[in-house]
Write a structure and sequence with these properties.
By secondary structure, this protein is of the alpha+beta class. The protein has helices at 4-14, 17-23, 86-96, 100-106; strands at 26-35, 38-47, 51-58, 61-69, 72-77, 80-82, 111-120, 123-131, 137-143, 149-157, 163-169. The strands form two sheets. A six-stranded antiparallel beta sheet has the order 1-2-3-4-5-6, covered by helices on one side.
Length: 171
């Protein structure tokens, strides 16, 4: 049987491997989000080796932003500065790596359990449950044939809405 660590390593290699990640200088990702009938824009910027920012905007108004610059972290929600707990800092550290799998494999306390094979968008995937040192859990689905991550489901804090299950599809 395949181990979760092997699935994550294959995903890193399928994304170009460590040499490709080391060659990156900066990346920006822009997209749109639809939530409860509202349209939002999503912006993410990586400045390697350890700079990262993300923002969700409605029009020009930033509803949420997160910034990591070296060891400095900041987060705002609807214009108000928020405290960042250690778990949120570790999440930003992982996201700053562009490939969370690289962060998970390099840091102790993460466990990976292959829960089986599931079909996502017509493709067979390994369903890997990732447990974080702080107790957080996500499920990531990696295509069996290529190793690429096709989907991920995470629980996150939704503020006044409580805990939210967020599914991200990768194409």
């Amino acid at each position: 049987s395949i181990k979760g660590e092997d699935v994550l390593r294959k995903s890193v290699e399928a994304s170009g491997g460590e040499a490709a990640f080391a060659a990156l200088k900066d990346i920006s990702i822009v997209g749109s989000v639809s939530l409860m009938g509202q349209s939002f824009t999503y912006e993410q910027l990586h400045v390697f080796p350890d700079g990262f920012s993300t923002a969700v905007k409605m029009g020009e108004m930033a509803l949420m932003s997160q910034i990591k610059k070296g060891d400095v972290y900041s987060m705002t929600m609807q214009g108000a500065t928020q405290d960042i707990d250690p778990a949120a800092k570790k999440d930003l550290d992982a996201r700053a790596k562009l490939s969370e799998e690289r962060y998970y494999l390099a840091n102790p306390g993460f466990t990976f359990d292959v829960k089986g094979i599931e079909t996502i968008d017509g493709k067979e995937t390994y369903n890997v449950q990732i447990k974080k040192p702080d107790g957080g859990v996500s499920n990531a689905f990696y295509e069996v044939a290529t190793g690429l991550k096709l989907q991920e489901t995470k629980e996150q804090d939704g503020g006044p809405m409580g805990r939210l299950s967020v599914t991200t599809k990768y194409t």
